[in-house]
Amino acid sequence: MRMVLLAWVAGVWWLQQASALPTGQGFAIAVGIAACVFVAGALRVIWVAGGTRSYAQPWGATSGRCRPGGKAALAGRGVDDRQAGGAASVNHGWPRWLAVAAFALSAGVGGYAWAAYRAEVRLGDSLPAALEGQDVLVTGVVAGLPITTGDGVRFVFDVERAHALARGDERIGGCDTCGAPSVCGNGKGIGDGGGAGASLAPRRLTGGGDLACGAVHVPKRIELVLPMRSAFGGKGGKRWKGEELGGRGVADLGAGDASEGAAAVAGTQLPRAGERWRMPVRLKAPRGFANWHGFDAELLALVRGIRASGYVRTSFGRGGQTNAVRSRRLHAGPLPGYGFAAWRERLRDDFRAALDPSARYGGVLMALALGERGDIADDDWQMFADTGVSHLLAISGLHVSLVAGAMAVIVGGLWRRASFGRRRLPLWLPAPKAAAVAGLLAAVAYGAIAGWGVPVRRAVGMVAMVVLALLTGRFAAPSYALAWALAVVVTLDPWAVVTPGLWLSFGAVTALVLAARRGDRARSNSSGRPDGARDAEGAEDADVRRKRGAATRLEAVAATPACETLVPKTGTLKIDEASSASAAWRALGWMGRWGVALCRRLAPAARAQYAVTIGLIPLTLAWFGSVPLLGPLANAVAIPVMTLIVTPLALASLMLPSGLAHWALFVAHAVVVWLADWLGTLAAMPWAVWRAPVAPVWAQMVAVVGVVVCLVPMPQWVRAARRWVIGMRLAGVALMGPAALASPQRPAMGEFRVTMLDIGQGNAVLVETATRTLLFDSGPPLGRGGDAGRRVIVPYLRSMGIARLDRMVVSHAHDDHFGGALSVLRAFPEAQVLSSLPEGHRVRRASATHRTCLAGQQWQWEGVTFRFLHPDKAALRDGRRGRAGPNSVSCVLRIANGRHSALLAADAESPQERTMVARYGRALRSDVLLAPHHGSLTSSSSAFVTAVSPAHVVFQTGYRNRFGHPKAAVVARYRSAGATLWQSVTHGGIRFSSTPDGMTAQAYRASYRRYWHALSPDSS
Question: Residue 175, SS3?
């Protein structure tokens, strides 16, 4: 069964690697055949299991597998060898494996087809291209918790109906009298109540000159931002104090205040979960940056079901916004189906009210209690990640198990003592089963409050498997519970298989299961009997241990290898051996006994920490390219502190009155402050984190094999010789070496590689030689607290194994070119900066060394020459005196090795181009050109294009940028010159490599396309 479940998961995973969804008759035939095989196999399994399975066997055990004596035991029960042989022929040998393989293959095809169906349904609800960037009036319900960000209030919106807008004679919505079949269609009217069969003709709204077309199609679920000003407080934190409204902050408003519409920001009320609103919005399809080893925002939008995003319009030009189309709350809510989201928001408001406004780590407590992590500062996130404890900031399986276990203990204790007259509840339902059911309900409730992340779903699924096994009288082996939980999670959310949360969560639990089996195997083979000293001290005997709590018993039995007894028989002990052990135990004294007991308690925790640390090394290297070396030490302190102190206090604050909740959070925050200070000390150590480039797939697979070798219980013949055990474990560690020590291939001596990163509207170009690295510009700022340096450039450099940045060129003083420079310098403080920035600029102040770029400056790295072509001294003098703008002093850099060359023109405009053409002439000839000023009409003059004659031209622009770059005339000019055109919007990151055979080009979106990536018209 485990193989079948894993095959289903593998089929789902395989679909996520596809560049396009499957279609055609062949696919339908394959699915049909697989379905027939699967049904036939399932019926066969049910038939055989119904006749041979014993309820005393673990789930997944085959007939006769654990019966002592095999055929001899069957013969003793009156079953002859022919019957036993027949059963063996059915359940063993190559026919059985062939049947299992066919069953698993059909399950894999089924998983592939299921994932394709889910993807087709979700992608079908898309935003028409004609509506992108247009004004649309949407009516719907606020579906999730509004979250304050740097650019306003962000929330998920379930659309009920939508109408395009027009002002006067201008068609804003893109509808020609609502006759475009791909966009418009019959629907309800524009009024609050609407009406079926509304007219498709434009309709004038009361109170202004605005017109509304008929209904247009908008995706069911969208994400909106209500633009507003917000203030953040705390020591480097991201805690939102709110806009001052009548002397109070928005974050301080209670549910009643919001429902009465007391708050108003930018002329509109603040939306709350469960309310129905009508809003004028501008939408666009999900779009993100596309770079090697970068974050996939389009995948995240697909996982969340967000098929369009945009912002709420608060004004329409100079005339302002008319009352007819301004944002308006139609129903205070919560509406049916959204009551739980509204309740979660009230919990969050009460939680924030109980927090001290100056609490820096209030976001940590919010994450532990409600699963909302938006209030945690980026610097704090980095500190927790560098010490390996970031998993504690999310509601994970550890927290779910804590809640479920605590509830089970409480209910179990009360249930055993519950009696009403002559009726005793334990006689109606055994206390272990009642405790298990209560624990499951508590886990489900906590998971709902937390938002059902992948670790939460995994933990709740495993708890449900254990409880189901207890209620049905079966044994739930951890491997089966884990496989079923994985299959259920992937079935409900097929895209979870390509997210790090699933791999890290299930990987950690798998490592714990392997370590538990290894520990049980070691204990069962160490002496073959229980400890006589513990028996002499009054430890419970085997019969009492078998009557312990249901969850503990199930886990212990499940972790025991098949056909082995969990508790050995005490009759095998000799009385004199027990007496001598008891005497030795008493001779230790109370200090010795205390030390031995403490070691026995700490040994399982140490084993678990070792297993998780080893087990997650390949996964953390694959996803994040780093391993926190001090993670075991940090977790040894952070796990008990967060689990036993902080999390219970944070959860208790949700149920306590406001006064007591304040003190509970005060104590919890004080503990977090102490813990964060200690973790900050660890993170500040230079060797706290091992950073490595993202290894190739083969190295990652070898590392996984190494983890299994390190953790799996060894066979009997290996355990007999300690040197073999040590050798096998060391071999497992060695197998993880390629993943930790691999490095991407750099250019050969005398060659260079140019990578144009996709960072939106701006420039960011990485130039690599055999041993040196240069960054040309650092991209734009990306909202409050973020920039292209932090989010794109630094992660890319680290994923490529670049530990040292030799030089960084900042072409000029526009923020789309220096916006990420400070983040890059924080990560690589030794980098030398060359720029045309004015004196006193913050980037110049932050740099260790700085030089002004000047025409004629040049240097050589491994046979590759770098030379500045602009600005000259006259241009610098005019720019610093204010006679010309920053574009006039853009640093223009040319890279050449004698055979190939690349020209990085930054934002040089026509006057600068004329100067360079007059000065260098045909020497400007280059194979690769970074288009000047992103392809604006003020640059790329005909003389410049002719002089450069590029084979490849790259436009680094943002999606639907407000400047309209690149301009059609400029694109046509380069195309007529015979150049191949590349756009970061269309192709993502673009990489050029010089080789003896020529200049090679690679585009990320073409090489690593997935079916959820947006399609853009090819401009090459």
Answer: coil
